[in-house]
Design brief:
The chain is built from 23 helices and 34 strands. The protein has 953 residues and is α/β, with parallel strands linked by helices. The chain folds into seven domains: 92 residues; 138 residues, no CATH class; 57 residues, no CATH class; 81 residues, PAS domain (Beta-Lactamase); 158 residues, Heat Shock Protein 90; 114 residues, Rossmann fold, CATH 3.40.50; 125 residues, Rossmann fold (3-Layer(aba) Sandwich). The chain is flat.
Length: 953
């Protein structure tokens, strides 16, 4: 084994050694060739660069001659305009010569009527320039000399020989460049401008323009320009190389282009962006020289194809062919040696080594037990240590069964329990090894997984049993707490109905408040327990947001007013009329938040706002109370958590209110958030999904059209809300700032306003007002800030004519009929607890009913056999026979009168259980007198209707 490994390693090293030697020999030849070619190219580049520099110097001299020429003319013009000569004598000579000056406007809207003095001065200047040109610069290639006045921007030409570029092309070119001089100052004096206009006939011929400003007393007086013909043939020396010469503008765009010499030329279209460049471009296809033609912004480029330089070097071609042939020869010898000698020998050695190491690789392939089973006889050919230990735990029968299953290929997974109760799982796959049919088997110990599954089942069973125990404990605690509490609250309720001595009424009220607080604490604990045990369910119903807010404000407004606070409620116009949800749980959450806001606020006001946000209905409660420290906000919704000691000492509570609110909101699919600042107050926001939204159809009431409503508010939020609310009705809403008002107008304010003009109605929004709108004097109404949207029905009555101006009318209120006689109704009270039984009897007697009592269900059956009863009121948990069995026995005996259950159980399914037992309704203890009266009134009317139907006609 060791010999095969060493031999294969030697073959592998020899193989790569031959490759390295061949590569080194070839690299040495390539390196020598590279340095030789590089030396030749460097020499040729130097020759080309010298020729480029000669051509560039020739082109630069042409530009310098143009610069010198414009300087000479600038000198003549400035000298003449600064110290004019004898104009009269020169004009006489000029008139004799017959030469006239023509002025053309550069811009179509300009007037080129030059005054006589200026015109005569320019004519004299033209005569002097023409004389100078003929006498001194006849050898200059000057096409034209033009002069542009700076005050009128009119052009005239001096001593021009012939026209080379049409006037329109020249004017367009000048218009594009003259703005550079219009706003120039004295610091730009002497700045020349160069440009080239290509010829229309030849690409290598163009016209060079040089323009310079003329300053007199540091003031731009005129622009002087010349035109010269540019031929690229004149800018290069004689060359036998196929050069491409191009003149570029400041944007690197070619203006003139010349192809010279014989042979293949460059097709380069994009030139280097650098101002001065020498090197290769276009993937080393061209050798390029680019230089700026100073002092202009023009550049000149010389391009020579590289192949015109390299193609002449026969030695280069021969060297490349020699290196290529050498590479082919060396790599061919190496390939032949590897394929014929090294690789076959290496493959044989590798095959032998693989056969020897196959078993070792299988054993080391996975951290599980692996063995190879021969299918013919079930023998274990190879196995690792873990598989060996597992197989020793199997009995002979298990081994025979495993071999039979693998041979028959019935399954690919087998579960086996060993002699020491370990759970093994065997997975297998068929294969070939050493020309035999084998099965590669993998063993895994799944005992931990089996135990974990059993533990999970036990935990689930224990959790289910714990939930049942929690539910039973909840039912027991609810019954044991609510039954004595019913006796306390019910008797106090009855005691308040009596005439009490002086001083006793205060004690009774204190007892009533304490018992109510105790009931709330018990209810919070039981609600929290129901939520934790998943006994509390959310019921979806259609409800009105306005009704929910109205009920809450109606309950808490007296408490707010008694504490001298303000309550502002805003329902935004975008809120739907009805949505789907649980109104009772929503009202419970809002009541808790509003109660906390009232409790922790001593001055200021409380704001309840309802709006929509995306697909959610948003309720926010803002107060101006003591606020919450930032470090305690994170724990605010934890059960039994109360804010710091200073707050806890002044306000009592269980710390469950906000925890219940958070869990109820989450059950409704929403969320709750809080923002608070100590000393400034808190803002609680809840959002619930906007499901089944129903919006009222948009409509504008005719009575509102043309009406003017004035607002004079100190509360800006209330003003903005009323502005939006009233404007949607079609009225014109304005802010009152001592304007004149008409008699049909309406004024709305949040304080007492004295107005001299008699109005149809004045409405004051008062924080201290409780109840519906009230007319304190003819035409003057008080309205609560807690329900500002209720001002719409009042204004509808005014605009419809139901309320007359100056009438003494108040909003209608319901009058409760308390004089109903219930002496014709006989009730049976079934209650095992003596205090509760006596309390129910006293409550019903106070309500005017005929009452009979029974101790339990069996006693109630005896009473019903002897006496006719109209309504049965029974407790559900009693000895001997409880309320469920009593209701079933009554229904089986065809008893049709109403049966109402009374329970102290707080579980959610308790009422449903009572209904299934045959009861008509179920009340929870403690039963207050008001709820008992409402329930019995409904069933008493049902009893009376049944009597009327069965009485003989």
């Amino acid at each position: 084994m060791r010999y095969l490994t060493s031999f294969r390693t030697i073959l592998e090293v020899s193989r790569y050694l031959f490759r390295v030697m061949a590569f080194m020999l070839w690299s040495l030849g390539v390196l020598l060739t590279f340095f030789h070619i590089r030396d030749i190219l460097n020499k040729k580049e130097s020759e080309v660069l010298q020729e480029y520099d000669l051509n560039f110097e020739h082109a630069q001299r042409y530009l310098h001659r143009s610069a010198d020429l414009i300087r000479d003319f600038q000198y003549i013009v400035e000298k003449h305009l600064t110290n004019p000569t004898d104009t009269h004598q020169l004009l006489t000579n000029q008139e004799n010569s017959g030469q006239q000056l023509t002025f053309n406007p550069l811009y179509g809207e300009l007037n080129c009527l030059i005054d006589t003095a200026s015109h005569d001065s320019l004519r004299v200047l033209n005569q002097q320039i023409e004389y100078w040109k003929k006498s001194f610069v006849a050898d200059y290639d000057l096409n034209r000399l033009f002069f542009i006045t700076a005050d009128s921007w009119c052009l005239t030409e001096f001593a021009s020989n012939y026209s080379t570029v049409d006037q329109q092309t020249l004017f367009n070119s000048l218009r594009a460049r003259i703005p550079k001089y219009r706003n120039s100052n004295s610091s730009d004096k002497g700045h020349d401008l160069y440009w080239v206009i290509p010829s229309a006939e030849q690409s290598d011929v163009g016209y060079l323009y040089v323009m310079t400003p003329v300053y007199i007393n540091d003031k731009l007086t005129a622009l002087l320009g010349i035109e010269r013909t540019v031929r690229l043939d004149d800018l290069i020396t004689s060359s036998h190389l196929p050069l491409v010469v191009a003149v570029l503008d400041e944007n690197n765009e070619p203006l003139l282009r010349l192809v010279s010499g014989d042979g293949p030329h460059s097709s380069l279209n994009e030139y280097p962006q650098e101002h001065n460049y020498f090197g290769y471009v276009d993937n080393y296809h061209d050798l390029t020289l680019k230089k700026s033609l100073q002092p202009s912004s023009l550049s000149i480029v010389y391009v020579l194809p590289v192949n015109n330089v390299v193609s002449r070097f026969d030695l280069l071609v021969n060297a490349l062919l020699f290196n290529l042939l050498t590479a082919v020869l060396l790599w061919g010898l190496v390939w032949l040696l590897e394929r014929k000698i090294i690789l076959p020998t290496q493959e044989d050695a590798l095959r032998l080594e693989e056969n020897e190491q196959f078993n070792r690789k299988i054993i080391a392939s996975a951290p599980v037990g692996i063995f190879i089973l021969r299918i013919s006889d079930g023998a274990n050919i190879l196995s690792n240590e873990l598989a060996y230990n597992y197989l020793n735990l199997l009995t002979g029968e298990d081994r025979e069964r495993i071999t039979r299953l693998i041979r028959e290929q019935q399954v690919n997974l087998i579960d086996v329990i060993t002699s020491n109760n370990n759970n093994l799982q065997i997975s297998f796959v068929h294969s070939r090894y050493s020309n035999e049919d084998v099965a590669i088997c993998v063993l895994a110990d799944i005992s931990s997984r089996v135990k974990m599954e059993q533990s999970l089942q036990e935990i689930a069973s224990a959790e289910q049993q714990a939930n049942q125990s929690k539910s039973m404990f909840l039912a027991t605690v609810s019954h044991e707490l609510r039954t004595p509490l019913y006796g306390i609250i019910g008797n106090i309720d009855l005691l308040q109905k009596q005439t009490l001595p002086q001083g006793v009424e205060r004690l009774v009220n204190a007892m009533n408040n304490s018992s109510g607080m105790l009931l709330k604490i018990i209810s919070d604990i039981l609600d929290f327990s129901k939520i934790e045990s998943e006994q509390l369910k959310i019921e979806q119903h259609d409800f009105s947001c306005q009704e929910v807010v109205t009920n809450i404000t109606g309950n808490y407004l007296p408490l707010v007013v008694n504490k001298r606070l303000g309550l502002y409620c805003y329902i935004e116009p975008g809120v739907p009329e009805r949505i789907k949800g649980d109104p009772l749980r929503l009202q419970q959450v809002l009541s808790n938040l509003l109660s906390n806001a009232i409790k922790f606020t001593d001055t200021g006001c409380i704001i309840l706002q309802v709006g929509t946000y995306d697909s959610y209905l948003e309720f926010s409660v803002r107060d101006m109370g003591i606020g919450i420290p930032e470090k305690e906000i994170a724990h605010l919704f934890d059960p039994f958590f109360q804010v710091g000691g200073s707050v806890q000492g002044h306000f009592q509570g269980t710390g469950l209110g906000l925890a219940i609110c958070e869990k109820l909101v989450h059950l409704m699919g929403g969320d709750i958030a809080v923002e608070s600042e100590p000393g400034l107050g808190s803002l609680f926001t809840i959002r619930i999904p906007l499901l089944g939204a129903q919006f009222p159809p948009p409509q504008v009431i005719d009575g509102w059209l043309g009406k003017t409503l004035w607002l004079q508010m100190r509360n800006q939020h209330l003003e903005s809300y009323l502005m939006l609310l009233l404007t949607e009705q079609g009225a014109r809403v304005l802010r009152y700032e001592d304007q004149e008002m008409a008699a049909d107008d309406v004024l709305l304010s949040d304080y007492s306003v004295q107005v001299a003009t008699p109005l149809s109605m004045r409405i004051e929004f008062s924080m201290a007002h409780i109840g519906p709108s009230f007319e304190v004097s003819p035409g003057y109404w008080l309205h609560s800030t807690a329900m500002p949207w209720d001002v719409l029905p009042l204004l509808n009555r005014l605009f419809s004519g139901e309320i007359q101006r100056g009438s003494d009318t108040v909003m209608p209120t319901q009058v409760k009929d308390t004089d109903v006689n219930n002496r014709d109704i006989h009730l049976l009270v079934v209650e095992d607890h003596p205090i509760s039984r006596q309390l129910l009897s006293d409550q019903l007697t106070l309500l005017g009913y005929q009452v009979m009592t029974a101790n339990d269900g069996l006693d109630a059956l005896d009473v019903l056999e002897r006496t006719t009863v109209d309504i049965v009121l029974t407790d559900v948990n009693m000895p001997r026979m409880d309320g469920y069995c009593l209701a079933q026995r009554l229904r089986q005996s065809h008893f049709t009168a109403p049966v109402i259950g009374i329970t102290a159980n707080a579980l959610a399914e308790e009422k449903q259980r009572c209904i299934e037992a045959g009861m008509d309704n179920c009340l929870s203890k403690p039963v207050i007198l008001t709820l008992l009266e409402q329930t019995l009134t409904y069933y008493s009317q049902q009893v009376r209707r049944n009597r009327a139907e069965h009485e003989p006609g």
